[in-house]
Amino acid sequence: MPPAFWLVLAFFLGSFVGSFLNVVVYRLPRNCLSINNPKRSFCPSCKTQLKWSDNLPIVGWAVLRGKCRYCGVRFGVRYPLVELLTATLFTLATWRVLISDGNVASQPLAWLTLLHTVLVISVLLPWALIDLDLR
After folding, report:
1. Are 125 and 21 spatial neighbours (Cβ–Cβ below 8 Å)?
2. Most buried of the four, 10, 56, 101, 108, by CB within 10 Å?
3. What is the pTM of this model?
4. Exposed, middle or buried: residue 67 (CB in 10 Å: 0-12, 13-18, 19+)?
């Protein structure tokens, strides 16, 4: 596969992981919510479940212009920024581990290194955001 394929795949995967990390950052510090309850995303203001298309990373927020389609309350710019940041970090990690310095995507150690890197990103990013929220 050409390097561009892996970079685009990493960006899309990173944006979806970033969307999930937004859920973690919002729900984890709140005792009444958990990661899987409620199962679907909802508007924090009117508590209405969002449509699946509203949850598409970056695009869903842009289509809705950052507002709930039901009550019109703004969601805030943090959601697409976290999705974009996660997508960018995943893409940079993929470039660094699989593509730069002549690394070959078919080397098993490179894939393990990439997996480790994206897992570290996926733990540290929500940890930092929750810390910022609780200050």
Report:
1. yes
2. 10
3. 0.87
4. middle
